[in-house]
Amino acid sequence: MLIAGNWKMFKGPAEAEAFAVELRGRLEGVSGVDVAVCPPYTSLAAVVQALDRSEIAVYAQNVHWAGDGAYTGEVSPAMLLELGVTGSIVGHSERRQLFGESDEMVARRARTALEAGFGVIACVGETLEQRESGDTELVLKIQVEAISFAAGAHERLVIAYEPVWAIGTGKTATPEMAEEAHAFIKGLLDRPVLYGGSVKPENAAELMSQTSVDGALVGGASLDPDSFAAICRAASTS
Ligand code: PEP
Fold first, then answer.
1. Residues 147-168: pLDDT tens digits?
2. CA distance 232 to 224
3. Mean pLDDT along residues 130-142
4. Known catalytic residue: 182?
5. Pocket lining for ligand 1, CB < 6 angstroms
6. From the alpha carbon of 92, which atom of ligand 1 is closest?
7. How many CA atoms, within 13 angstroms, populate the side-chain half-sphere of residue 52?
8. Does residue 123 have a pLDDT over 70?
9. In this structure, are residues 61 and 29 in contact, taking their beta carbons and an 8 Å threshold?
10. Fewer CB atoms near the end CB (10 Å): N or C, the chain?
């Protein structure tokens, strides 16, 4: 089980550091679950420091495919490793939809990060329109195959199934819908699959109890130490 908190563009260094200290205390004694937080770039150093010698990993929200170069606004795996960051999300639907990231870009990011020794959470998921027109499996197949073609079944690769219509909307996939999509993804690529999309303390245990659900990528509910710790605890007992 892996529970990762995607903070998106929230929490500057001071707030992030205070949160990390609080979370560390709340997760003491919680076992059987790996936990990662994904702060914005400018808060990574503060969070790495606050979580020094703890079991909580610090991941970035994105990472570039080149070691260095003329890529304004981008950050390489080596730069993040130097800070003590050990992994990254790639292909979040906000990156795909708002910033035009293609399957090919996502796959290249995943491959370079894995080659650098990073843990990678690669996000896939269908929009509401795609689900309603019966294209969910086709969309997942295209997205997962792009990642698996570039990155292979690398040991540190985890897929996050995040139906776009469930992200930040309060609408969660039913446990059956999540299970069906996760089983389909695992049939394409034999890696752990996290569920993402309005995971909260109230629905975490049921989602995590599905056979093919190996954890969660949590957005909104990861911004509050109480709710994020509660989700981590639900995963540790399921
Ligand atoms: C996310 O941003 O990856 C996410 C799943 O957000 P939320 O939990 O807020 O739906």
1. 999 888 889 999 999 999 999 8
2. 12
3. 96
4. no
5. 6, 162, 167-168, 196-199, 217-221
6. 3
7. 5
8. yes
9. no
10. C
Q: Find the radius of gyration of the CA atoms of the chain.
A: 16
Q: Which among 17, 64, 92, 182 is annotated as catalytic?
A: 92
SS3 172: coil
Ligand 1 pocket mutation pick from 37, 165, 198 by most atoms within 8 angstroms of CB: 198
Distances (CA, A) of 84 to 2, 50, 87, 111: 19, 11, 9, 19
Q: How far is CA 124 from CA 81, 119, 127, 155, 191, in A?
A: 25, 16, 10, 18, 13
Phi/psi-derived region of residue 118, left when phi > 0, alpha when psi is between -120 and 50, beta in every other case: beta
Atom of ligand 1 nearest to the CA of 198: 10
